[in-house]
Amino acid sequence: MALESWKWLVQLTESGSFTRASEELQISQQTLSSRLAALERGLGCRLVVRTTPLALTRAGEVFLEYARKADSERTAMLRQLGDVAGGGSGVLKVGISNMRGQVLMPHVMTQFHRSLPGVSVRLLEGTNEELVRMTERGEVDLAVALFDSAHPGVTVRRIFREEVVCAVHPKLLAQTWDLPSDTACSLALARGLKGLRDLPFLLESIDDISGRIARIELRHAQIKAKGLVESNNMMTLLELCASAVGCVFCPTNLLDATEPMTGELLRVRLSDAARYDIGVGMPSDAGAWTPAQVFEDVLGALYGD
């Protein structure tokens, strides 16, 4: 009874449908269905009720528990064999936000693959809240995120401090206030966020750090937290800001990384609450694995304070 079939059942259960599971496993639905049927024949019982959404039989629930344990043991064995053989092998699952991935990953991945060319990396992108939950549930080997409180079953190492500012194009300031650009910029810096109340805002989702900070800062400045545009894609918001459509709350490291597009933007600093620590979180019960440790070390060496 091939362990691969056990792993496929785990993926099928987590995906909730044959369509999504086959996409994740990169096999055809027919192959997945045939393999499941063969597994059921070998066990002499039905494991899955082929409904929408998919459901497990009682026997399937029992089998899934053992399948997950077997998959975990198989992964641990392959990782240990890779460490013993030197250089490592396997797939490192890294949780990271889309924005932070664009800023950090080009440099981190270059150095990481020089050290461990046999290890591939799977980036799982999401909001900060999603990344924290993935780490708590052990769905990633590590996550680069804001862990702002105690998280059960997660070990966190601080890497660097990040700061969100309110970025605005001088052209928008000049048009709104009918002032020369230099004068408008000086006035905006002197007034701070409260001085921008007449300008339109571009807001990220409240589930992400910048979106949450934006709403807190706007509330403290007694500005109604309603965005002209709301999006989960920070790059889209930056494009709009660079086109003088509105103000955007954005981390300074992303502004630095996109300078050809955002170099003209004025940065209005916010309160101390807009500065926070980004760390690497790992499931506490995960055994030591060279690729995860190397990735963390590379990230710390390149971007650690």
From TrEMBL:
Residues 1-57 form the HTH lysR-type domain. The keyword Manganese does not apply. The keyword Transcription applies. SUPFAM superfamilies: Periplasmic binding protein-like II, Winged helix' DNA-binding domain. GO terms for cellular component: cytosol. It holds the Pfam family HTH_1. GO terms for molecular function: DNA binding; DNA-binding transcription factor activity. Keywords: DNA-binding, Transcription, Transcription regulation. Belongs to the LysR transcriptional regulatory family. This is LysR family transcriptional regulator. It comes from Xiamenia xianingshaonis.
